[in-house]
Amino acid sequence: MDENNSRREVIIAGLLLILVIAIGVIGYIQIDDFSFVDALYMTVITVSTVGFGEVHELTQGGKLFTSGLILASLVILGYFISILTQKLVHTQVSFFYSRNNKKNRLRKMENHVIVVGYGRNGKQVVNELLTLGLKLIVVDQSHELVINNMGRPVRFIEGDATNDDILIKAGIKTAQSLISTLPNDADNLYVVLTARSLKHDLKIISRASSESSEKKLRMAGVDNVVMPERVGGAHMATLVAQPDIVEFLEHLTIHSDTPTQLSEIMCNELPPDLINKQISEIGVRRKSGANIIGFKTATGDLIINPSPDTKLIPNSKLFVLGTKQQIKQMKDILSEPKVSIS
C-alpha cells in the first residue's frame, strides 16, 4: 500500500467517525431535547454498540434516529477499524521487510570498505570515501551514534570490532579493505589482529599515535599506518616553508568535484595486447591530454615521472593526472581491444 494513500484513508475514516458522533449528538439534542452530556453519552454507547440502557425514554422519532445511527455507525466504525488495522499490519510488515532487506544487502555486499570507529578521523574517512562512490560499512560501539545515522547511505553496525562475529556481520569475508580509526592504539592493534585472522589478503589501514605503536601495527599485519600528528605537522611546516606547493598539491586530488584529479589504473585490467608495451607506444598523452606521472612496479617500487620506455608489466600500476574528461578518455583508449601504435 502506498504510504500517502494509507495515511489519507486513515484520516478519512477518522473524519467519518467524528461526523457520525457529531450527527448523533445534534440529533438527540434536537429530537428528544437531551442535554449535551446526555446526547454525547447516548451517541457513544450507540456507536460503540455496548448495549447500556437509555439515559431517558426515547420518543418514536428518537428510536428511529437511534436505529439509523446504529446502522451508520456499524459501517463507518467497521471501516475505521479495518483501515487502522491494515495500517498497523502494513507498518509491521514494512519494518520486518526493511530489516530483512538490509540483512540481504549486507550479505550480498562485496568489495566494500569497513571503517572501524566514527570519531573525527573516522567521519573524515567516510566523507572522503563517499565522494568516490565506494560502498561502506561503519562499525562503532556507540548505540546512540548508530541510531542517529540509520537514514544515511552508509550501513552502521553497533558492536566491538575486536569480536569476530561483529566483523563477520560487517562482511569482512568479501570486503576489499578495513580502516581502523580508533583513538587508542591498543584497540587498533586488536582490531588489526582480528581482521587479519579472518581474511589474510585484506588490505588494512590503521591510525597510530606513536612510532612504537606503528611498529607493532606493522608486525600485526597492517598494510599502511597513518599518524595524524605526523601528517598534520608536516603539512603545517610546508605551509610555512613552501606554501605554494601545498596549494598546488591540494588541486591534485581524487575528489570528483575538482577540475584536476589523480587516478590509478591497474595494468592487469588492460587488454592483453597492451601488456609489455612501452608508455611511448600507446601515445596516451597525445590522444587524451592526460599524463602518466607515476608507475608502481610489480615489486612495489614507485617511479615518479616514468620514462617513455617504461613497460606496462603485469601486476604494475599507472598513476594518471588530468581533468575528469581527460582521464575518462584515457581509460577508454586503454580499454580498447586494439590500440594503434604511435
Name a few traits of the molecule.
54% helix, 14% strand, 13 helices, alpha/beta
SSE blueprint and pairings:
Blueprint: H1 3-32, H2 36-47, H3 60-108, E1 113-116, H4 120-131, E2 136-140, H5 143-148, E3 155-158, H6 164-169, E4 177-180, H7 185-198, E5 203-207, H8 211-220, E6 224-226, H9 228-241, H10 243-251, E7 260-266, H11 279-282, H12 284-288, E8 291-296, E9 302-304, E10 317-323, H13 324-335
Parallel strand pairs: 1-2, 1-4, 2-3, 4-5, 5-6
Antiparallel strand pairs: 7-10, 8-9, 8-10
Helix pairs in contact: 1-2, 1-3, 7-8, 9-10
In words, what does this structure look like?
By secondary structure, the chain is α/β, with parallel strands linked by helices. It is built from 13 helices and 10 strands. Helix content is about 55%, strand content about 15%. A 6-stranded parallel beta sheet has the order 3-2-1-4-5-6, sandwiched between helices. The chain has a 4-stranded antiparallel beta sheet with strand order 7-10-8-9. It starts with a helix and ends in a 7-residue tail after the last helix.
How much helical structure, as a percent, in the residues? 40-55%
- By secondary-structure content and strand pairing, the structural class works out as alpha/beta
Largest sheet: 6 strands, parallel
Provide a count of the helices.
13
Total count of strands: 10
Shape, principal axes of CA atoms: elongated
Strand order of the largest sheet: 3-2-1-4-5-6
Residue windows where pLDDT falls under 50 for at least 5 positions: 338-342
Q: Into which percentage range does the β-strand content fall?
A: 5-15%
> What is the N-to-C order of secondary-structure elements (H for helix, E for strand)?
HHHEHEHEHEHEHEHHEHHEEEH
